[in-house]
Amino acid sequence: MTGIKDVAERAGLSVATVSRALSGKGSVSPASRARAQAAASELGFVLSYHASSLASGRTHNVGLVVPSVHRWFFSAVVEGASAALLEAGYDLTLYNIGENAAHRQSVFNDFLLRKRVDAVIAVSLELSENELRQLHAVHRPIVGIGGPLPGASTIRIDDTAIARQATNHLLGLGHTKIAHITGHEAYDQDFHLPGTRRTGFEKAMNDAGCPVRPEWIVSADFTIEGAYAAARQLLAGAPERPTAVFAASDEMAIGTILAARDFGLRVPDDISIMGIDGHDLGNVMGLTTIDQDAKGQGALAVRTLLGAITNGTPLVAADTQHPTRLVVRTSTAVPPADAN
Amino acid sequence: MTGIKDVAERAGLSVATVSRALSGKGSVSPASRARAQAAASELGFVLSYHASSLASGRTHNVGLVVPSVHRWFFSAVVEGASAALLEAGYDLTLYNIGENAAHRQSVFNDFLLRKRVDAVIAVSLELSENELRQLHAVHRPIVGIGGPLPGASTIRIDDTAIARQATNHLLGLGHTKIAHITGHEAYDQDFHLPGTRRTGFEKAMNDAGCPVRPEWIVSADFTIEGAYAAARQLLAGAPERPTAVFAASDEMAIGTILAARDFGLRVPDDISIMGIDGHDLGNVMGLTTIDQDAKGQGALAVRTLLGAITNGTPLVAADTQHPTRLVVRTSTAVPPADAN
DNA sequence: GCACAGTCTGGAAACGCTTACAGACGCCAT
DNA sequence: ATGGCGTCTGTAAGCGTTTCCAGACTGTGC
Description:
Two copies of one chain form a homodimer. By secondary structure, the first copy, chain A, is an alpha/beta fold. The first copy, chain A, folds into three domains: 4-47, Orthogonal Bundle (434 Repressor (Amino-terminal Domain)), CATH 1.10.260.40; 61-156 and 294-323, Rossmann fold, CATH 3.40.50.2300; 159-291, 3-Layer(aba) Sandwich (Rossmann fold). Helix content of chain A is 47%, strand content 15%. Chain A contains 14 helices and twelve strands. The first copy, chain A, has helices at 4-11, 15-23, 30-43, 49-56, 72-88, 101-111, 129-137, 159-172, 185-190, 193-207, 224-236, 250-262, 282-285, 294-311; strands at 61-66, 91-96, 119-123, 142-145, 153-156, 178-183, 217-220, 244-247, 272-274, 289-291, 319-321, 325-327. In chain A, strands 2-1-3-4-5-11 form a six-stranded parallel sheet, with helices on one face. Chain A has a four-stranded parallel sheet with strand order 7-6-8-9, sandwiched between helices. Chain A has a two-stranded antiparallel ribbon with strand order 10-12. In chain A, α8 packs parallel to α10 and α11 (224-236) packs across α12. The longest helix of chain A has 18 residues, at 294-311.
């Protein structure tokens, strides 16, 4: 393996100068720099990542912890973060926690603590006190996306407010019989948002003087399939059918649309459906939604971290509100005439 | 920061013995081992990842290069690989190449070569000669998923055979007017599979004596949205409509189903549609498909690599065929009676 | 009682960089 | 000339482990 020593030899410089020339830190004469670079590229030399990290204390590596890359929102965040990191010359170590509790634990106990990342991004994870303490113990900046992380900087959207906005969109069209598809309660632990979105829904309904019917609040697991099943229940047996459904995520809204179609309900003529997210399928499905720019959130998290890393600023525990945008498509309309 | 030295001191042992005790390599008396472990846990000590890697040459880190985690197949592979790696105590460094050519280049030029990973998994990437040379230059085992990588071990499905099998399923039901949605030609460069699947389709058609109509072969970008648009063209203007569509991926099949519905076509009564993949939405959409177990492929790739790493066996350039499974659901049936 | 293999241990040399430090040099103002 | 300053460079001391090596100690077979 060719090392920096070989480069130095070939360039007729000292190891130190070569190191400075290649890293751009410290002053090096233009001539030396050119010689060093030439020698390096002639030898096909690349710095040893671990040696650099060990010597400098910088890993140029960010840990990203997500519940599951297989879900739309998370993979979008990963894409956004990944591109921003790549751009900055940082590596991305992915911790895909999955459903396995043991995996989750080992990520926190064994992986995250080994001083191998400069910073951590935790997506939609409600961390236990213990987990948080461990994270803080490594003294690395942490930013959370999509959920509050005590003591860490957070990027998120105002879930209550946008749930309200979404509900108001339906109310504004004249709907009063509005159902809500929320997340399973168990998810509140980890992802936190079902509760806040539901709250926004209920507030908006109350403000409008519309009753919130308990039987019209059903829960699913945030997937298309899960919501499809839940929506079938919602739309099938009820003595009375809602004229609109507000789902807590686009994936669940899409599941609802599919279920509605199965019942022969036309969207939006017979029933209006909307979600929250900005899912890629929104266009094809004609889904009205509130776009929360998941990629942008990933990228912003990276920029925030990188800023803290390079400035050496100890990341303040700030809460950044990410902008959202109501996108009206064809899945929502005024309620059918006969449904007063 | 507490180092191994502190642990040694506290345990009354030498650094060397502590290192052996904690790593489990070399012989250490049970008593010493216990003392070392106790001291380590009392101090909350964790090994420095970089120092270990530098000294041992093992990084315990695998690089995973994918076109985009945002796409179904790739994220499934990532999930499978991630779980297997976590289990084995390995980190996963994700290189999400994306559409940006500069990113792709920097991944190969700057990132992958830094002796940072013990092995590389490349998913559905047709690498250039240059890229491959660079990969081989780092002397790490490489496995490719979903595409042939000259000189590397590969895990994949027999695209031609399963495309044939899929087509035969439709032919077996009595269809003769079968359309095919393939990938854009440009994708052949990177992902390779549109061509092979199309070949399988054509072979099956030929063998059955059915004409392949050029106007019934349309291409899309492997996304639901893309196929939706392509399928609208296919199903709209034609003087004659196919009675079945075989899409080269489930996502494209789903797009086709959505397009068919928009035209008021009932699936499968008016038109049969099937894909390849084993997409999560398959169930909800009632999609007939050939399941290729993407997660399993990711996990298998990891097991293959880890075997090579631990044995020190220089991974032979073998081609492992991953099993697939025809899953018949409700999107395929015999052709409508009036369509002879 | 002795040689020998086997187990356990510590010292110290890597691993391949970064960076503090100090020296060498040129240049300017004095 | 002289001092001071800034730029450039090399020497060498880390960074925190792993692992080679040799030594110390056991127990065994003779």
